[in-house]
Design a protein that fits this description.
By secondary structure, the chain is mainly α. It is built from 39 helices and 4 strands.
Length: 854
C-alpha cells in the first residue's frame, strides 16, 4: 500500500513539474498545447468571431455600389465593442504568458493583432503582426500575420508598405487558407486604389479556393458587380447565377436577382416583356415589401435604358414614395429625376426641386455629394432669378386693376391654397393610416418631392389671361362691387347682429369659425399687400427684374451651358430695358455666343451695335483686338470695384465665390494696370482652397506672367514665406541617420519612377540573385512622385551587405546600362531605412553612405 502511494505521489510530482510554464518535456508540452488551445486561445478566438459577426450584421450594405471586401470599422464600432476587444486581448495574453512555447503562442499573438486592428489601434496592430513574422516559429501563423499586416497597412494608409508585404508573400509557400486570404486582402488593396481589373483578378483567385456557402456567395456577387461595371455583362450574369447557387442570405439573393435583370441579354421584344414580368413578380412577393423602393428604381432604370422616359419618371417617383426607412435609396430616386429634368427635359425648375430633395436626404459620405450639392446651388440661384422675374412681372401686371378686383383675385387664390392644404392633410392622414394598418403606403398620394416644385409654391399670376379670367370670375359671382369694408355683405348694418348670433352658438365652435376665417383673411391681406401701389415700388421691382435677367443669362451661359436660352434671356433684357447698364457687356456676350454657334451674321450685328453705341468701352475694343492691353481708367475703375467685392468675399472665407468673380472679370476684361491685382488675389484664393503646393505653383506662374508688376515683390515675399514654412516643416520632421551598424541591412537601388525601368531593374536583380544562389528576396516601393526603389533583403550585418553590393556593382553596371537615368545603389541599416523612407532625402543618405561604407 505504501509502495503504491509512493508511485502515485511520484507521478503527480512529475506531472506537476511538467506543467511548469517553462517546461519543455513531452508531458509539459502536451499540457500547454492542450490548455492554451482549449482555454484562453479558444475564448479569444470566439471573441474575434463575435466581433466580426457583429460588424457584418450592423453594417448598412449599399448594394448600389460595389460591396466592400471587408466590413469597414469606424470609431463607433470600436467604442461599442471595447469591452469585448479588451477581454479578447486579455485571454490571448494568458495563452501567451502562461503557456509560453506552446504551438498556439503565435496564433494568440495574431489574435492580439486582430483585436488591436478592430480597436482602430493600427500602429499597435502593425507592430504585433511584425513581431509574429520576426519571432514566430509557425510558418502558417507568420503568413497569416503578414496577410493581416497588409490589411492594417491599407487602412493605415501605408499603401507602399502593403505592396512590399504583398510582393513578399507572393513568393512564399502558403497553405490553401492563406492563399485564399492573401488573394482576398490583395483584392482589398486594389479596391482601395480603384483598380477594378486587379480587384476582380484577385477575387476570382480567392473564389476558386472557397467552399460553397454564404461567404462565396458574397464574393461571387462582388465579382459580378465589378464585371457589370466594367461592361462584361455576360460574365457578370454568370457570377450572379453562381451567387444564387451558393445559398446567399435573403437580402443578397434579392439584389442578385435585380442585378441579373440589369445584365440580361435582350434580343427581342419578348425578352423585354419577360423582364417586365419578372419585376412585377418581385413586387408581388410579400417578402420584398421593404425592397419595393429598390424594385421600382430598377424598373425605372430598365425603362430609361429602353428610351421610355415617361415610364422611367413614373417609376422613379414610385421608388421615392416607397422609400420609408432607406434615405439613401430615396435620394438616388430624387437624383435620377433631377438629372432627367436637367439633362433631358431641360426643365430646370423641376430639376431644382428634385435636387433640393436629393440634398435633403442624401448621406454626405456619397462620393459625388460635393458635385450634387454644387449643381443644386446653381439651380437654386437659377430658380431664384426666374422666380423674381415671374413674381415681379405678375405683381406689376395686376397693380393697375381696381382694388376690389385685386382683393377678389387674392381671395380666390387664398381659398384655393386652403383647399389644397386640406387635401394634402387628408392624403397624409390616409397614408399614415395605411402604414399603421398594413405597413404599406399609397404611392399615388402625397408629395413626392421633399420641397415643393416652384410651380406649385407660388400664387402669382404668370400670364395676363389668368388675370383676366380671375376678374371675369369675380364679376360673374359678385357683380360690380365697391372697394370697402364688408363689401360682400348686402346688409352692412347686420354685422353686429351676425356677431351676436355667432356668440350664441357656443365658445368652442365660435373659436373654430373665427380661427379659420381669420387665417383666410390674413392670407388675403398678405397677398394684397405684396402688390405695388406706387411708382417707386414698381420701379424697384422692375430693377430687380432687370438684374435677374442679367444674372439668369449668365447662369444659362456659364453654369448650365444653355447657349440658346442665354441668347433669348439677354435679348429679352435688351428689349425690355434698352437703357440697361449691362447693355455693353450683354452685347459682347451675345457677340461671343453667336460666334460659338457659328452664326457670324448675327455676331456681326451685335459687334456693330456695340461699337456704335459704346465705341470707347472695353468690350468694343475687345472685338477689334482681343489682346487689347492699353491702359484705361474706366477699365481700372471697373476692376477696382470688382476687386473690392472679391476681396470682401476672400476675407469672409467665401473663396469659391471670390474666385468665380475674379475669373469672370479676368476673362471678360483685357489686361490693364490693375489686372495683376486681381490675378494675385486669385492666387491667394487658390492657396486657401488647394494647399501649399498649388499655392507655390500659382505664385511662380504669377511672377513669370507679371514680372513688371508693382505687386511682384509682394508675391515673391509670399512665395519665400511659403517655401520657408515648408523647409522648416521638412527640417522638423528630418531625423539624423544612426551610426549603429550591428543590425540587419538592406541593399537599395533608387531609380526614376518609370514602369519600364521598374520591370527591367527588378529582372536584373532577380537574375543576378538566382545566378549566385543567394536565396534573397526583392521588392519594389514608390519613394516619391519622381523616384521608386528596389529593395534586396536581408543581410545580417554591414560586411555581408557591402560584399553583396560590391559583387552586384561588378556584374551590373546600372550607369552604363541605363544611360541618362539617375540610378543610385547603396547598403543601409533597418533603422536608417525607416528614416530614409520618411525623409525621402537621397542626397543626405548618399553623403552618410560615402562616409561610413566606402
Amino acid at each position: 500500500m505504501q509502495r503504491n502511494l509512493f508511485i502515485y505521489l511520484t507521478i503527480i510530482t512529475i506531472v506537476v513539474a511538467g506543467c511548469s510554464t517553462y517546461s519543455s518535456n513531452p508531458v509539459g508540452s502536451s499540457y500547454h498545447n492542450l490548455t492554451a488551445h482549449y482555454n484562453a486561445y479558444f475564448i479569444a478566438n470566439e471573441h474575434i468571431k463575435e466581433i466580426e459577426t457583429t460588424l457584418y450584421d450592423n453594417y448598412q450594405w449599399n448594394y448600389n455600389k460595389i460591396l466592400p471586401i471587408y466590413v469597414p470599422v469606424d470609431s463607433n464600432d470600436a467604442n461599442s465593442m471595447e469591452e469585448l476587444i479588451t477581454d479578447c486581448v486579455e485571454k490571448a495574453s494568458i495563452a501567451i504568458q502562461r503557456h509560453e512555447g506552446s504551438r498556439w503562442e503565435d496564433d494568440s499573438y495574431v489574435l492580439v493583432g486582430k483585436a488591436r486592428y478592430y480597436a482602430l489601434e493600427y500602429a499597435d496592430a502593425i507592430e504585433t503582426f511584425k513581431y509574429v513574422n520576426k519571432e514566430g516559429r509557425d510558418d502558417n501563423a507568420r503568413h497569416e500575420a503578414l496577410i493581416e499586416l497588409i490589411k492594417a497597412f491599407v487602412d493605415f494608409n501605408e499603401i507602399n508598405n502593403a505592396i512590399v508585404v504583398s510582393d513578399y508573400l507572393k513568393k512564399e509557400d502558403l497553405n490553401t487558407k492563406n492563399k485564399r486570404e492573401l488573394s482576398m486582402v490583395r483584392a482589398y488593396l486594389y479596391q482601395k486604389r480603384d483598380d477594378l481589373d486587379m480587384l476582380v483578378q484577385n477575387l476570382v483567385q480567392a473564389e476558386a479556393l472557397m467552399n460553397r456557402g454564404q461567404q462565396r456567395a458574397r464574393i461571387d456577387f462582388i465579382i459580378g458587380q465589378v464585371y457589370q461595371q466594367l461592361g462584361f455583362e455576360s460574365e457578370a450574369y454568370n457570377y450572379y447565377q453562381s451567387t444564387l447557387k451558393n445559398g446567399p442570405e435573403y437580402e443578397l439573393e434579392f439584389y442578385t436577382k435585380l442585378n441579373m435583370a440589369q445584365v440580361s441579354q435582350l434580343t427581342n421584344s419578348g425578352d423585354i416583356k419577360k423582364i417586365r414580368k419578372y419585376f412585377r413578380k418581385l413586387l408581388k412577393d410579400t417578402k420584398n415589401t421593404e425592397y419595393k423602393d429598390k424594385i421600382y428604381y430598377e424598373m425605372a432604370n430598365f425603362e430609361l435604358k429602353q428610351g421610355n422616359l415617361d415610364e422611367a419618371i413614373e417609376f422613379y417617383k414610385m421608388s421615392a414614395a416607397s422609400s420609408v426607412n432607406n434615405k439613401r435609396q430615396k435620394a438616388y430616386a430624387y437624383l435620377k429625376l433631377g438629372r432627367i429634368y436637367y439633362d433631358s427635359i431641360k426643365n430646370f425648375e423641376l430639376a431644382k426641386a428634385y435636387y433640393d430633395s436629393t440634398i435633403a436626404v442624401l448621406p454626405q459620405d456619397e462620393d459625388d455629394y460635393a458635385k450634387i450639392k454644387q449643381r443644386q446651388e446653381i439651380l437654386e440661384d437659377f430658380v431664384l432669378q426666374l422666380t423674381t422675374i415671374r413674381v415681379n412681372d405678375s405683381l406689376i401686371a395686376i397693380s393697375n386693376l381696381p382694388q376690389d378686383s385685386i382683393r377678389a383675385i387674392a381671395s380666390s387664390i387664398a381659398k384655393k391654397e386652403a383647399a389644397q392644404e386640406k387635401e394634402k392633410k387628408l392624403k397624409e392622414e390616409k397614408r399614415q393610416a395605411n402604414i399603421a394598418r398594413n405597413g404599406t403606403i399609397d404611392v399615388n398620394g402625397g408629395n413626392l418631392i421633399g420641397t415643393s416644385p416652384v410651380s406649385g409654391a407660388e400664387w402669382y399670376f404668370y400670364t395676363p389671361s389668368s388675370i383676366g379670367r380671375g376678374v371675369s370670375e369675380f364679376k360673374r359671382i359678385w357683380g360690380e362691387r365697391a372697394l370697402e369694408d364688408n363689401w360682400r355683405r348686402s346688409n352692412k348694418s347686420g354685422v353686429d347682429a351676425n356677431a351676436s348670433e355667432l356668440a350664441d352658438k357656443g365658445q368652442e365652435s365660435l373659436d373654430a369659425a373665427i380661427t379659420e376665417e381669420d387665417l383666410l383673411a390674413s392670407r388675403i391681406d398678405e397677398l394684397v399687400a405684396a402688390v405695388p401701389t406706387s411708382e417707386d415700388q414698381i420701379n424697384t421691382m422692375l430693377s430687380e427684374v432687370e438684374v435677374a435677367h442679367y444674372k439668369l443669362g449668365n447662369i444659362y451661359n456659364f453654369n448650365l451651358e444653355e447657349k440658346r436660352n442665354a441668347i433669348e434671356t439677354f435679348e429679352m433684357l435688351l428689349l425690355r430695358f434698352p437703357d440697361t447698364e449691362y447693355e455693353a457687356e450683354v452685347l459682347y456676350q451675345l457677340f461671343l455666343l453667336f460666334n460659338q454657334l457659328d452664326e457670324s451674321e448675327m455676331a456681326g450685328r451685335k459687334a456693330q451695335t456695340l461699337k456704335e453705341k459704346y465705341p470707347d468701352s472695353i468690350y468694343a475694343k475687345l472685338i477689334d483686338n482681343p489682346n487689347y492691353r492699353e491702359e484705361s481708367q474706366m477699365e481700372t475703375e471697373l476692376l477696382k470695384k470688382i476687386y473690392s467685392r472679391a476681396y470682401q468675399l476672400y476675407s469672409s472665407n467665401e473663396h469659391s465665390k471670390s474666385l468665380y468673380l475674379l475669373d469672370s472679370a479676368l476673362m471678360a476684361i483685357p489686361e490693364n494696370q490693375f489686372s495683376d491685382n486681381l490675378a494675385l488675389l486669385k492666387v491667394l484664393n487658390v492657396g486657401k482652397m488647394e494647399g501649399q503646393y498649388k499655392y507655390q505653383l500659382e505664385l511662380n506662374n504669377f511672377i513669370k506672367e507679371y514680372p513688371e508688376s508693382d505687386v511682384v515683390t509682394y508675391a515673391q515675399s509670399l512665395l519665400k514665406a511659403s517655401e520657408d514654412y515648408q523647409i522648416n516643416l521638412y527640417n522638423s520632421a528630418k531625423a539624423r541617420f544612426v551610426e549603429y551598424f550591428k543590425q540587419k541591412h538592406y541593399i537599395v537601388i533608387v531609380y526614376p519612377n518609370k514602369d519600364d525601368l521598374s520591370q527591367s531593374i527588378s529582372s536584373d536583380l532577380d537574375a543576378f540573385i538566382k545566378s549566385k544562389n543567394f536565396g534573397l528576396t526583392t521588392g519594389n516601393l514608390i519613394l516619391d512622385e519622381n523616384n521608386a526603389l528596389a529593395l534586396v533583403n536581408e543581410f545580417p550585418g554591414k560586411e555581408s551587405a557591402n560584399n553583396f553590393l560590391k559583387l552586384m556593382r561588378a556584374e551590373i553596371d546600372f550607369g552604363e546600362k541605363y544611360k541618362g537615368e539617375k540610378i543610385y545603389n547603396f547598403a543601409i541599416t533597418e533603422d536608417n531605412f525607416n528614416i530614409f523612407y520618411q525623409t525621402r532625402d537621397i542626397n543626405a543618405y548618399l553623403n552618410f553612405f560615402d562616409k561610413h561604407y566606402k
